[in-house]
Input
Amino acid sequence: MKLLGIVGSAAEESYNRQLLQYIEKEFANQFDFELIEVKDLPMFDESNDQTQSVAIQNLNRKILKADGVIIATPEHNHTVTPALKSLIEWLSFKIHPLATKPVMIVGASFYDQGTSRAQLHLRQILDSPGVNAIVMPGNEFLLGNVKKAFDEFGNLKDEKTRAFLQSNLQKFLKFISVVSKLDDAPEQLPDEDLQAKGSVATTIPDVNMSSDHWVEEAAAKVHPVKGDTYVQLDHGILTVNQIDELLKSMPFEITLVDGNNQFLYFNHTSESASMFAHRKPEQVGNPIGDCHPARAYNHVKQVISMLRAGKLDVFRMPVPHGPGKYVVHNYQALHDTEGNYAGINEYILDFQPIIDWYLKKTGKELTGGNVDAVSGASKKDNTEKTDAVPGASKKVSRQQPDAISGASEKAAPVKPDVDAVSGASKKD
Amino acid sequence: MKKLIGIVGTNSATSTNRQLLQCMQHHFQKDATIELMEIQNLPMFNKPTADKLPDIITEMAAKIEAADGVIISTAEYDHSAPAALINALDWLSYGIYPFVDKPVMVTGASYGALGSSRAQAQLRQVLDAPELHAMIMPSSEFLLGNSLSAFTEDGALKDTDIIEKLDGIFADFLVFVDIAQQLKNAHDANKKAAADFDWDKIR
Output
């Protein structure tokens, strides 16, 4: 479950930010929580549209991907802050990422009232047609007298308040699953062209994509730098050879597909027969439709369209490669500096050596009955009281189960329908 | 003759709320002077810890302080007043209190039929907050719906019924400004209450 927290204050110091940070910390084992800020965003101005700015587009993508949003609002003059209202105006002008998104409202204030009026205004605002969020009814969380509410570690002092917040958040998680059932008709994402008939800014025109010698033919058109020529990167300077060496040294196979669904590169670490994906040099340049059997097209299209739309950051799929291996194909969306979709980095990684190394180093064992090996490990971690590296165990309990349980779910035959993929989005 | 300020309640370059205030400025020129005040290009309110307010804010506050009354014409975005207007009001109540007991008339224009009704309702609650504490004229809603087609080329209102309604409300507002002068017994206490509601104590 992926939740987004919006800090409704533009002030440097904010108890509403502190409240969300507390939620992030306290409930880390129940959901992934990312905080976003409204400060430093431009004031909404309908005569100066900045919807396409990096800042707004990044927020747009994050909100689209989140399963739910928690907004923490201060109260100024009986209403919400201009900075929060301005953000909502941007998100209801040309784009509408909050539409049908489950939203929970919380608020902290200095006085007893605890943002009661601002929360009511915010409910009306979120209910307007341009925003069209689905705000959880009831369950008002007003944190009054906030100066005395937190201890020195940023934890809520009052036990009843903690319990009330906990119960509200539990209800919100249920509310999210209820809301998802309201939406009978799944959103239709645009169809993907697996034959790469279109083009993007970097497409090299007038070269036969299906040619076995696409790389040589395309090189003759654009004369790419190579060998010991320097290239400046973010952040560093390398020669083309050094980039090649770096990519070939990665402990996984990388394939890059651009935003036009054209296969442009793989790190050619060894003979194709001994690579997990069996990529052949002559395949480079192909439309990705040429790299998959037609029966897989629907599923491939579905994954790409969700990555393109920002519904997923990464899609993971385990592919059996025999005993002693746990090979996962990871389809990671690429974005340009302005946040636009730029293609896919497919990295294929055998997790098993990592797991083995981890077990060896920590002295832990895989235990458990019918659970699969790896989720058993994470279970063990959660109960491990004396852990030399507490930070590490936290990482494991949060991240491993995500990656692996998503994967194990996928191990079942993948049906090219929405359920399969929404399950994935939930896990990721 | 009464001196009024007309606040254009949006930062948009084109606005039928600006048009409405310009129309009122012209239409009521025999009864009052209405100086239009813009809220464009104000910094985003962020509760700065420094004492000094931006110059543009202190200038606006001085004009409001000196005026007999204020007309705020609000647009409606997402069922509420534009962020830009809330922003201006937050600045104009941050350690300065020009609105306390200031007679205020609320108007609004919108492209749709509802004429900013919900934004006006929220704006009235905002103006009632302790640090603004404006004296809002009660029972005087002026909603201009379908505002894109409401004006002639010369900027006058087309519909005589609407003009009649506006005439009535505006005449009442001028009386309300006079009455408000007599409702100043609690003024000192109100100013003190606004100042005691100290932002320095609030983060």
